[in-house]
Hints:
Two copies of one chain form a homodimer.
Chain A lengths: L5 E7 L3 H13 L2 E7 L3 H9 L5 E3 L2 H5 L4 E4 L6 H8 L8 E4 L5 H7 L8 E3 L1 E3 L20 E4 L7 H13 L3 E4 L2 H27 L6 H6 L5 H7 L4 H10 L1 H23 L3 H20 L24
Helix pairs in contact in A: 4-5, 7-9, 7-11
Amino acid sequence: LAExxxxxxxxxxxxxxxxxxxxxxxxxxxxxxxxxxDASGAVxxxxxxxxxxxxxxxxxxxxxxxxxxxxxxxxxxxxxxxAAEIAPRLKDGAIVSDVGSVxxxxxxxxxxxxxxxxxLVPAHPVAGLEFSGPDSGIARLFENRWCILTPPPxxxxxxxxxxxxxxxxxxxxxxxxxxxxxDLVLAITSHVPHLxxxxxxxxxxxxxxVTEKEVIKYSAGGFRDSTRVAASDPTMWRDIFLNNKEAVxxxxxxxxxxxxxxQRAIRWGDGDTLFNLFTRTRKIRREVIEAGQAGLPxxxxxxxxxxxxxxxxx
Amino acid sequence: LAExxxxxxxxxxxxxxxxxxxxxxxxxxxxxxxxxxDASGAVxxxxxxxxxxxxxxxxxxxxxxxxxxxxxxxxxxxxxxxAAEIAPRLKDGAIVSDVGSVxxxxxxxxxxxxxxxxxLVPAHPVAGLEFSGPDSGIARLFENRWCILTPPPxxxxxxxxxxxxxxxxxxxxxxxxxxxxxDLVLAITSHVPHLxxxxxxxxxxxxxxVTEKEVIKYSAGGFRDSTRVAASDPTMWRDIFLNNKEAVxxxxxxxxxxxxxxQRAIRWGDGDTLFNLFTRTRKIRREVIEAGQAGLPxxxxxxxxxxxxxxxxx
Lengths: 314, 314
């Protein structure tokens, strides 16, 4: 039998992404043993019930002891304090990674706390749905999705290789870029789309002329898509906007400028401007479909075994 | 055997909505006979191949002859000219309906052309996907969706009853409102969501710092939802914005105002404003789900018969 990819994996934060990783790692047998930490006792209990870890800990410090790979799956605003907390207990040569949707700020928050003998390999799997909590994880969430790695210059190549191999084993494709470029790309492909969805749902529910009940009743005309995106975790998203301020403000400025031009076209009855834009955007959709990024993740195949309870060690 | 609901139905425009109606009417046997007109000869041929009509006509005037119910399924900008064209050939007592996403402008465009012996019952099924053309129709598209009727004061109640019964037979729920209120409700639940999706996709594809290829590659972070909405038919949507100008500009003004406030919250690091909005919007999603409006239409059940070729009349 082949050795598992990792000796001991520690996942901190067992929400939608954390528990998706746990499901994938368990199904594929990618780790010899797994420790999980979550600040919520209920979450720890649920992870144990689901058989997704060998050991669960309320205290992150205890969870990292002995782990060769530690993945931080908490909101980006909590990364710094968490890194400070676990740093003294990291094993010599441990690889620390994360799944944060912002990279520059997260690297600045984590890096200063790590001991010289630990390796930081920041990662961002561009995947995830609007759900939260340990029960919302999906083993195949990362299949055919991109995982972006932003290792700081001088990072040990074997550490990068290890995190790449882990994500590839979970079905993802790997791309490397600088944290600054990552934050720009994600500002337009993820952060601004979320902000305008949140904003639209807010605007709609504040109207006096149209009731909230009507907005919900007739949401199949397009609004419902925004409500899905705007159902994403509030803490996670607050932290993203506070920690990718510059790139989000830059992209938002462009969005608003363009929207003002469209508003003017509507006011002046300039149908050509509208028609030309709407034709151009249709082409982008075709390219998203061709790139295999249009759909939801594939459902787990019918009859797939539920993750089995793991044997407790000694 | 029960009589079909309609004696002879005429559908003009066999795109996504028109061909969905044809599929539903055929499957449920709701019409004794069906005539279809489309300005495209290829579409007429395809509808005949699919067995969705008894007769197809390039010329709308010929298609309406003898029909007791005529449904106009063309972009709202074409409704007036179409009404003028068919009016002289309408049968005495014919009911004319439409599926336009705007109601005040469509009523103003159609009404003056109709002879006194025809009955106008404007309708808007709040359903539809981003697809176009006769092959994109879905028999169950209207199931558990709302169809809004906006009959002008004094409309014959039996005509309203007939169109209600038709939509109910196709699985829709009926709501009546004034055309003005319809246009406000749809401006926020459908028109502005489409406009900001089109705008976002346009902004994203115009960037110099992030390539179009990157935007597509990493679209699973939220952008892909906008690309779906922004793939909707350009002519249809140009016409919607040009014909619901006032309500769209009003809702867009509010959206932009609110977005500016969010932008300011991000710039000043006001996490509470963001968190409070994101918590409030999450609740709306739950209500959309509870109202049964969250999902795509149910797929046709496996093994459902393909629409059968209709017998040609003598």
